[in-house]
Amino acid sequence: MRSIGLAVLLTLFAGAPAGAQVVALGDSATKGFHLSEAETWPFKLEALLRQRGLDVHVANEGVNGDTSEGMLSRLDSAVPAGTRVVIFACCGNDNKNPRHFVADHDADMQAIFARLRARGIAVVFSPERSAGAMNPADIALAQRMGASSCGCIYKGVAPEDIEESPAGRHPNARGTSVIAARLLPCVMSALGAKGG
User: Fold this and answer.
1) What is the pLDDT of residues 120-144, one digit of tens each?
2) CA atoms of 35 and 148, how far apart (whole Å)
3) Residue 160: which residues within 8 A CB-CB, separation 6 or more?
4) Where are the alpha helices (H) located in 16-157, listed in sequence order?
5) Please, what are the domains in the chain?
6) Residues of the chain with pLDDT > 70: what percent?
7) In sequence order, what are the residues at sequence separation of 6 or more whose Cβ sits closer than 8 angstroms to the Cβ of residue 155?
8) How many whole angstroms separate alpha carbon 117 and alpha carbon 122?
9) Which residue of 49, 91, 106, 125 is surrounded by the most CB atoms within 10 Å?
């Protein structure tokens, strides 16, 4: 009798839908430079997804000062098994100064897209480049590699909600709300969820 009860429990758990895993992979604009966790756009995006009935956890894998090279080197640890979508917000730090030297930005980007695609992970690309300018070659590469584009990470953010400092450009708490809302439909589409 006990083994039957255990079998029923295991069947119920096996049939329960697991929460979808979304990873925000980026630099300090993702991490939340000088912001609390609750003020970051990955945290706010998770709340928006849950408001729409989606059992989704958005992991914040932003690292201050990171580059495409750094993201490639930590890709496996930052994007665990079970991840369904990666929001790839890159690469405002690549070669912006000698401290952030990247030997081959294009090769890094291609490798990241290829490795995620090989794992069956949908990629939502939201680029961030130095001085806010997007690199058209990055957009073209993302499209060739099957990633969906969701516009520049700062698209729609008012200038007064982007703080400039010696460390770079970073969204404030109002800016991260705009980013989360803009990314929402892109991420829902990548998850195969209907809007509503």
Assistant:
1) 999 999 997 644 456 788 889 999 9
2) 28
3) none
4) 28-31, 41-51, 68-73, 75-78, 105-118, 136-144
5) 18-191 (3.40.50.1110)
6) 85
7) 182
8) 7
9) 91
The stretch 44-56 carries a mean pLDDT of 97
Instruction: List C-alpha distances in Å: 81 to 20, 63, 121, 141, 147.
Output: 11, 20, 10, 25, 19
Alpha helices in 67-120 (DSSP H): 68-73, 75-78, 105-118
The residue to which tokens 């590469």 are assigned: 141
Q: Name residue 59's beta-bridge partners.
A: 23
Give the sheet arrangement for strand 56-62, strand by strand.
56-62, 20-26, 83-89, 122-125, 148-149
What 8-state DSSP symbol labels residue 37? G
* pLDDT of 17: 39
Residue whose C-alpha is closest to residue 58's, from 72, 77, 37: 37
Distance of alpha carbon 35 from alpha carbon 33, whole angstroms:
5
Q: Two tokens at 184?
A: 């929402």
Q: Is the peptide bond before 91 cis (omega within 30 degrees of 0)?
A: yes
**Which secondary-structure segment (H or E) carries 94?**
none
Q: Cα dihedral sign for 70, 111, 184, 161? A: positive
